[in-house]
From TrEMBL:
Name the record gives this protein: Histidine phosphatase family protein
Region (Disordered): 212-234
Domain of life: Bacteria
Entries under InterPro entries matching the protein: His_Pase_superF_clade-1, His_PPase_superfam, PGM_Phosphatase, Phosphomutase_MSMEG4193_put
Species of origin: Nocardia rhizosphaerae
Listed Pfam families: His_Phos_1
Amino acid sequence: MTVILLRHGVSTSNIGGTLAGRTPGVALTERGTEQAAAVADRLAALPIEHIASSPLLRCQRTVAPLAEKLGLEPEHDERLIEVDYGEWTGRPLAELLTEPLWKVVQRHASGAVFPGGEGLAQVQQRAVAAIRETERGLAERAGRDVLWVACAHGDIIKSILADALGLHLDSFQRIAVEPASISVVRYRPTGPSVWKFNDTGADLSALAVTAAPAPGGEVPDGADNGNAGHRDSP
């Protein structure tokens, strides 16, 4: 069984200087819409049989072009939803940099719990469970391997990749997952293997960004070019 982990395209929050979290109505920018169309063109030739998505708008709009090309109806999975950042949701990123919890998220993610929200260990547990359970269900129904897509958010995908790579959650900040990037995990009875991660094809624009990104992989204000690395950010 093989899953293509797709991060949503650049959103209005990615360039707005705030932490979106689960704020409703956060849409894609013009660049994000272009990325969604490009992803659809790139993946439409593959024998994808299922699309699962976070229920948030930015993920729905990212998978919509692909779903239309493939004639599939995306399944909204609440377990793929963005981290509940609690009281951090909607706050300016510049303020969050001064919070003591910021360093905890960087250095001891497994012990980080957002005030009024989730802990990152809880996030990884639900995200990995979503992937594994969907894998099993697809295999049982098809009686064979299935290629499918799961569209989610930066920290969600990073936690899934950390599990597949056998990394402790405390090391998940070492993984970069840019907007509209794909990462590929193949699950076999003997264990998972990571075939690709943070793959954006020929688009290398993220390498030109020097400003430090923000919690959840947000792009610094004015840098609407697809960057979402996690250098010193949750």
